[in-house]
Design brief:
The chain is mainly beta and 383 residues long. The strands form four sheets. The protein has a 16-stranded parallel beta sheet. Strands 1-2 form a two-stranded antiparallel sheet. It has three helices and 22 strands.
Length: 383
């Protein structure tokens, strides 16, 4: 592209210059407007009339203070990204079927009680963010959102999820945490076959939750519910699992790719893994009912943190103390009566042993640990 400049204060009327200009820079000036955090209560005229706009960010303003202001965007048919987050909006008087090119829509942090008309008909929509609203229900049919990869609906008032959401074959991220959902499923075979991240924490789930069909899940958070049984033993791609604060007594995992397991605050007595979790780095099983540590724990050589306090442990495998990567071991508030006689290969930086039933410590315990342990807690009440 070339732009021809004629005349100018220091040029004769016949002086012309041809300059080469990056067409992408010119296009960006015309296609993208960012007006976040300007305390706007109205939409500037140059925005409303710019029918070439593709990216518009109006987040963190006050557009909800005046009625139907957002309806002035109706002529911007070429939008691909629209951000209306944090605007005190109680409703959005737009028919989104008029925005056929929309790929990203952000409506988070408003006061919406229902989704605007036409959103679930957007074939090109890839990301929909509606967190922190007052949504109590959702449209029933989501099957037309064939391109949707990320759906975030956290911090709303939802008590159920339409079954058609599980038919979205491009969906990779689903965030439903901090709602009022009490039941999920049963899920059909092939449900959300590309789903990698599922967050269901702080809901009202109870009883049994079977997530077996979600075979590609790598991040799963079902913490702070009241689940008694969780069927995830076929999820072989699972890397991060959070089941804190439930009512689980047993947990069966595939384990081969697991890196983080947070399971504190249950009634767990056993955790089984079909494959030794060789990549597991952090294990939190505190505040449970374990009498013995899981059998596979001595083979999980990548572990750097084991939190096993507040259980019923009376014995700990000797191999734990010589694990070369283990930095933090918490065994306080258990029923331990002795430690291994040798700790010469101890690499830990932090060891918590208070409130157990030790009769004595191994000979030269402090000599072997000198210069290694940075934090060591043990009360004379043990003895």
């Amino acid at each position: 592209m070339t732009i021809v400049f004629s005349g100018g204060n220091n040029r004769s009327p016949n002086d012309t210059r041809i300059l080469s200009v990056d067409i992408n820079r010119v296009r960006n000036i015309q296609d993208e407007v960012k007006l976040s955090g300007r305390d706007l209560a109205t939409i500037p005229e140059y925005v409303r009339r710019n029918i070439h706009l593709r990216i518009l960010d109006l987040s963190n303003n006050s557009l909800g203070r005046a009625e139907d202001v957002v309806s002035e965007l109706c002529d911007l048919k070429n939008l691909t990204r629209l951000n209306l987050s944090v605007n005190e909006l109680k409703n959005i008087p737009l028919d989104f079927t008029s925005f056929p090119f929309l790929e990203v829509l952000c409506l988070a942090g408003n006061e919406l009680e229902y989704l605007p008309e036409g959103i679930t008909s957007l074939h090109r929509l890839k990301r929909l963010h509606c967190d922190f609203n007052h949504l109590g229900s959702l449209p029933l049919d989501w099957s037309s959102l064939v391109s949707l990869t990320s759906l975030t609906l956290s911090n709303n008032r939802l008590d159920q999820l339409p079954t058609t959401v599980w038919t979205l074959q491009c969906l990779e991220v689903l965030n439903l945490q901090r709602n009022r959902i009490s039941v999920i499923g049963p899920l059909p075979e092939g449900a959300a076959s590309r789903l990698k991240e599922l967050r269901l924490s702080w809901n009202r789930l109870s009883g049994t939750l079977d997530l077996s069909p979600l075979v590609n899940i790598s991040i799963l958070d079902v913490s702070h519910n009241d689940l008694e049984d969780l069927e995830i033993s076929k999820l072989y791609k699972l890397e991060s699992l959070d089941v804190r604060q439930n009512a689980l007594k047993a947990l069966n995992l595939e384990g081969s790719r697991l890196r983080t397991l947070q399971a504190d605050g249950n009634g767990l007595e056993i955790i089984t893994c079909k494959q030794v979790p060789l990549y597991l780095e952090k294990l939190d099983i505190s505040h449970n009912n374990f009498e013995y540590l899981p059998e596979w724990i001595t083979e999980a050589k990548s572990l750097h943190t084991i939190l096993a306090d507040h259980n019923h442990l009376s014995h700990v495998p000797t191999e734990i103390f010589s694990c070369c990567n283990l930095m933090d071991l918490r065994l306080n508030h258990n029923f331990l009566v002795k430690l291994p006689d040798f700790l010469t290969q101890c690499h830990m930086k932090s060891l918590s042993l208070q409130y157990n039933k030790f009769e004595k410590l191994p000979y030269n315990f402090f000599w072997h640990c000198h210069g290694k342990l940075l934090f060591f807690t043990i009360l004379m009440k043990n003895f």
